[in-house]
Amino acid sequence: MAKKIVFKDLILWEDNDYIVINKPPFISTLSDRNDHVNILSLAKGYHEDAQVGHRLDKETSGALAIAKNPEAYRELSMQFENRKVEKLYHAVSDGIHDFSDLLIDLPIQKLSNGTVRIDKRGGKEAQTHFQTLQAFRSHTLIACKPVTGRMHQIRIHLANQGAPIAGDNYYGGELIYLSQFKKHFNLKKESEEQPLIKRLALHARSLEFTLMNGDRKSIEAPYPKDYQVLLKQLDKYA
What we know:
Layout: H1 7-10, E1 11-14, E2 18-23, H2 39-46, E3 51-52, E4 61-67, H3 70-81, E5 86-94, E6 102-105, E7 108-110, E8 116-118, E9 127-135, E10 139-146, H4 153-160, E11 202-210, E12 216-220, H5 225-236
Parallel strand pairs: 4-11
Antiparallel strand pairs: 1-2, 2-4, 3-4, 5-10, 5-11, 6-9, 7-8, 9-10, 11-12
């Protein structure tokens, strides 16, 4: 049985207008017909006027901003629209990649099946900056700074560079198993090896936006346990 999520335990920072949480993986930001538990419903249980300022994919973990009143929500929405919010993501990609402040500027089109594709004629503009943080034996930890906020933007832009996010089966990413790089890996009889991380390896590392009093606020979200385990094992066998 899945562990019950206590909203208060997710809070990284809050003031009178905003809450920033560290969203766990495997929970939708907004209502999901397959699951009655979502971040918005949990947030409203904590503060009745709560509104989610943006969204993270269900499998993605990390920093997520929530407004506590309509004025704060409007202000945050305007900051996202005018690209005044700075978002930083960390992704573990398949393969070795040396990205040095690489800017990918490729338009994205939404498809009816819930995925996206690069479409230079009919797509909406999309830009992401990529920077290699650490290369392992057969994977790379990459810092991703989206300029625009298109659906699956980081995922499709990395896949386009031949660097799909590990575990991202929509865009060509492969699950990571310890047996791939640990010599003499032994599995107990009649047991199936589990991947090091059971989702796409994407984490919203930090968020920076302007508060209602005009101050800028930056909040960093620690890696969740599965992401810590993944990086520890990749580093150990690098």
